[in-house]
Amino acid sequence: MDKSKLRRSLLKKRQSMSSEEWQQKSECLVKHLRFSPLFTQAQTVLAYFSFRKEPDLSTMFEDTERRWGFPRCVGKSLCWHSWKPGEALQKGKYGIFEPCGDAPTLEPSEVDLIIVPAVACDQRGYRLGYGGGFYDRMLSLSEWESKPTIGIIFEQAYLPQLPIDDWDTSLQGVCTENGFNFVVL
């Protein structure tokens, strides 16, 4: 199956979850993520605001021991800004909440962990995104390639193997409502 057909199928399946199931699975996933070694060691974490029934990580953002960063889409790139609960958000060009443009930016050297949204991940750590290439482009840059990454998905989208392209990079871990998995290549 090609990436676009697989993406449509998996998104349809995720959208069909009831709100109760989505929230319950999100809460379980957050518990596993909070205790993962990559997260417990991180001080500055890049994350995302849930969109279209992506796992909801919002309860984690109340953790004031960490500095949180969220993306803004600027052209074909992601620009990262720090954000704290209560600070203003705006909807970006894709309808996803993001920090306002005047929020302080985060440089790669400040980042300890990147929590990556995905449509699916496989057991090798490859992810299927939404097709825009934002994370693929970012993670291929030298200043980002050494940063630990965790793909966030529901178990139904954790597959044995995904189709990959030359530009795809593997994540270090994948977290679902069933647990945290280190990727072994």
TrEMBL record:
ATP binds at residues 3-7, 127-135. Pfam families: 5-FTHF_cyc-lig (PF01812). One of its GO terms (biological process) is folic acid-containing compound biosynthetic process. It catalyses: (6S)-5-formyl-5,6,7,8-tetrahydrofolate + ATP = (6R)-5,10-methenyltetrahydrofolate + ADP + phosphate. InterPro entries: FTHF_cligase, FTHF_cligase-like_sf, NagB/RpiA_transferase-like. SUPFAM superfamilies: NagB/RpiA/CoA transferase-like (SSF100950). This is 5-formyltetrahydrofolate cyclo-ligase. PANTHER family: 5-FORMYLTETRAHYDROFOLATE CYCLO-LIGASE, ATPASE INHIBITOR/5-FORMYLTETRAHYDROFOLATE CYCLO-LIGASE. Its EC number is 6.3.3.2. It comes from the Bacteria. Belongs to the 5-formyltetrahydrofolate cyclo-ligase family. Its cofactor is Mg(2+). GO terms for molecular function: 5-formyltetrahydrofolate cyclo-ligase activity; ATP binding; metal ion binding. Substrate binds at residue 54. Keywords: ATP-binding, Ligase, Magnesium, Metal-binding, Nucleotide-binding.
